[in-house]
Amino acid sequence: MYPKWLWPVFAVPGVVWLILLFLVPFYAVIGVAFGGVDPIFLNAVPTWNPLDWNFDALLKTLAGFLPGNQYWGVFLRTVVYVALALTGSLLLGYPVAYYISRHAKRTKMLLIALIVLPFWVSYMMRMLAWVNLFSPNGFVNKFLLWTNLVQTPPDWLGGNHASVILGLIYGYIPYLILPLLAALDRIDRSVLEAARDLGASPASAFFHVTLPLSKPGILGASVIIALPMFGDYYTPTIVSGSPRTTMLGNQIDIYFHGGPQPSVGASLTMILSAFLAVLMAYYMITIAKAQKEVAA
User: Fold this and answer.
1) How far apart are CA 175 and CA 199, in angstroms?
2) Which residues contact 6 (CB under 8 A, 6 or more apart)?
3) Rounded to two decimals, what is the model's pTM?
4) Do residues 90 and 176 lie in contact, with contact meaning Cβ atoms separated by under 8 Å?
5) Which of 124, 130, 239, 269 has the fewest CB atoms within 10 Å distance of its CB?
6) How far, in Å, CA of 72 to CA of 179, rounded?
7) What pLDDT shows up at residue 294?
8) 257 pLDDT more than 80
9) Which spans in the chain are helix H?
10) What is the phi-psi region of residue 121: left when phi exceeds 0, alpha when psi lies from -120 to 50, beta otherwise?
11) pLDDT-derived band of residue 259, with 50, 70 and 90 as boundaries?
12) In the 8-state DSSP scheme, what is residue 105?
């Protein structure tokens, strides 16, 4: 008989890891947001004691998110970019995951290896490759001119919204395909066979059995890529570099590294974290409801 304290001990490394690499850094961000700024060197002066916190920077930053104010347009642009990139990733990634799970037999491991292959290259290098593709004399413009789809090639790297959205899709779609593949692999094939025995066509079996059963996987994969997309600042900086395509991550980066208001950057981080926490809570509630339905 094992002692009661044995199994909780296995959680200790994870808890310590969470405290050191999440809670402590996040508390440092809170200290910067509610702290001050050195008037000479313009560096952040964190305030660690909650009794001494100053909420002026946070309140001013929150006011900037009201319609028509400083951050409203950036926030809306970020939400639209992430929504379109997530939709595009699902439209491209779900068929790939479905094919590998249901139809690829001998080539399954090879296809999975090809999906994992981009992880071996840094994200920044992969975005720089897109700069070459989207350059005025790059492959994309040459292809468009060769096929006579356009007479004048578009400026992909000068504040083009499509470039940022395509860059987000390309950068994050492998993180969506792999969880979807795992979710589709977990679906019991006997359920699909039962649907076929009851007269369901392949399309009907997909829309009424496979798709609903893969909903938790879709939500989980969407959360995995949507959360980092909201804080992404590499992609719009590299493939666009224009104020017309800045996202919230760019604003945070500017205030932290390029401006005299690190407390505003920390406040933006807290607001974005609160927004993402709401999305995460929705995901958790939805998953809990789905598990109850399956159990019932």
Assistant:
1) 36
2) none
3) 0.88
4) yes
5) 124
6) 33
7) 63
8) no
9) 6-9, 12-18, 24-33, 56-63, 72-102, 108-116, 123-134, 139-146, 161-185, 189-197, 202-205, 211-213, 215-230, 234-239, 248-253, 262-295
10) beta
11) low
12) S
**Residue 122: its pLDDT value, please?**
85
Name residue, tokens 């950057």. 265
Place of tokens 């709401």: 278
Please give the Cα distance from 193 to 188 (Å, whole number): 9
DSSP state of 260: S
Which value, to the nearest 10 degrees, does the dihedral of the CA atoms of residues 106, 110, 112, 113 take?
160
Owner of token pair 């989207």: 134
Q: Write out the two tokens for 169.
A: 């899709």
pLDDT one-digit tens code per residue, 147-195: 888 888 888 888 889 999 999 999 999 999 999 999 898 888 888 888 8
Residue for token pair 């500017």: 254
* Total residue count of the chain as it appears in this document: 296
Cα gap 152→71, rounded to integer Å: 34
Tokens 């104020």 belong to: 243
d(CA 278, CA 174): 25
Which residue carries 């900037």 as its tokens? 64
The pLDDT of residue 258 is 63
Task: Identify the H or E element spanning 36.
Answer: strand 36-37
Output DSSP code: residue 140.
H
Q: Residue written as tokens 């076929």?
A: 196
Q: What does DSSP assign to residue 277?
A: H
